[in-house]
Amino acid sequence: MLLELLVLLVPAALGEDVTQRQLKPVKGVPHSRLHLYQPSTTDTFRCLDGSQTILYSQLNDDYCDCKDGSDEPGTSACGNAFFYCSNVGHKGNFIPTNRVNDKLCDCCDGSDEYDSGVDCPNICDELGRAARIEREKIANVARKGFQKRQELAKEGQALRDAKLKDVEPLRQERANIEPERARLETEKKAVEEVEKKLQDEHRNQWEAVRIEKKKLRAQDWFDELDLDKSGKIDREELRQNLFLDNDHDGFVSEDEVKSYLTIDEADFEHFQSSMYDRLKEARHQHREEMKYKEEQEKEKAKALENAPDDDDLLADEDRHEEEEDPEDVRAQEDDKMPDYPPEVNEASEKAREARRLFDEVNEKVQDLDAKIREAEDFANSDYGEDYAWAALKDKCFDRNVQQYTYQFCPFGQNTQKDVGAYGGTSLGNFKNWSGGETNKYSKMHFGDGQQCWNGPKRSTDISIECGEENELVEVTEPAKCEYLFTFRTPLACTDPDKEVVHDEF
């Protein structure tokens, strides 16, 4: 709370020009804020939260008078105040006042232990030198990275300009082709209608003949099954057909018959509509089973030692295997539609040619549409204020972690796969920049990845840091199916020589 007040309050709050007079030093207060701690004309001090006014002599008297602790910046009397370490030679910083005179050296200049009896060595120069060396290293990386970033920005801007420049010619080319495409589509539809009409007529004619032939085959079989020629088939007549012996016990039972004949007697109409196809399938299945058994017997006979001549023994069986059910042969012939007549083939050829001509032009239009969309999407995408990030579009960066390879594709999809594997698991697709208002391009968010088992869809957050090269440097999974990547790139580098460094805060 005190820090917030210190940031918000300004010298004008005192109602006087403090820059024109010598400021009295106050322990624990940085020079930039000494004006807040100067005595008033009545030799009083007003707490920084404005809650009360106390005597100026009560400042740093080791007793907490102000609720915000602002009267004791140099002692440990208040638990909610802060002490400023000047740290000359290094960087000044604030510490909680409860660390003042606690016999532990918190400030590098030892100023926090001024009254504890502890002699703290001043190591600010040493720390300052190390910090300056480290800052210079970081600054050198930033300078090199920033230089590359400027080059990438030019590349991205040139790419944007080229894509946008191509949009209007592409639109004009599409407009020129569109009338031809529309004409060919109309012609295609017309000849396809003729083709379909002739094909349907041929198919309907054949279907009518096929149905009639099937009816005749059904009638022949009905007459064959109707042993007493009564015009009806009863269960006893149906039991004479061994192909209905489903349990292979040598005879057809009443229950086996009932599964095909659910009424007492069946006339031809019932036979044709409810029994014919099922009986035909049962007979076909029975024949297949018999063939299989015969084949097994044949194999056994071949395996017997000193067996009679195999060819003589199995000749009849072989001939039986080659025989086909005449009913099945007739059905196959009847169910095969005759070839289309010449007039239908001629119509189909015209339709094929019309489709070919239309497809050629239509593919050109679709290709132009794709190029136009790509250019417009590129122009509408957020690649940074200077388009520098466009240089990484369609590029990917890998990092191996144990048995996995993680891949980061800016503006694309992140994946996890076994090392050496081809396919992988989606960790999310690019959704948006998520660095916030202050540094929007410092983070990326990827979502809607592959669903976790009994968990959420996978997602990835990308933390972006300044670096001389593009490199995926770290991969972690802080929560189930939520991944965190650290990516270093010149695109995150700013000009270090234009940055202002503040030692006080």
From TrEMBL:
The keyword Disulfide bond applies. One of its GO terms (biological process) is N-glycan processing. It holds the Pfam family PRKCSH-like. Residues 307-327 have a biased composition (Acidic residues). Residues 282-303, 328-338 have a biased composition (Basic and acidic residues). GO terms for molecular function: calcium ion binding. Residues 282-355 are annotated as: Disordered. InterPro entries: EF-hand-dom_pair, EF_Hand_1_Ca_BS, EF_hand_dom, Gtb1-like, LDL_receptor-like_sf, Man6P_isomerase_rcpt-bd_dom_sf, MRH_dom, PRKCSH. Residues 1-15 form the signal peptide. Gene3D superfamilies: EF-hand, Mannose-6-phosphate receptor binding domain. The keyword Calcium applies. This is Glucosidase 2 subunit beta. GO terms for cellular component: glucosidase II complex. Residues 213-248 form the EF-hand domain. It comes from the Eukaryota.
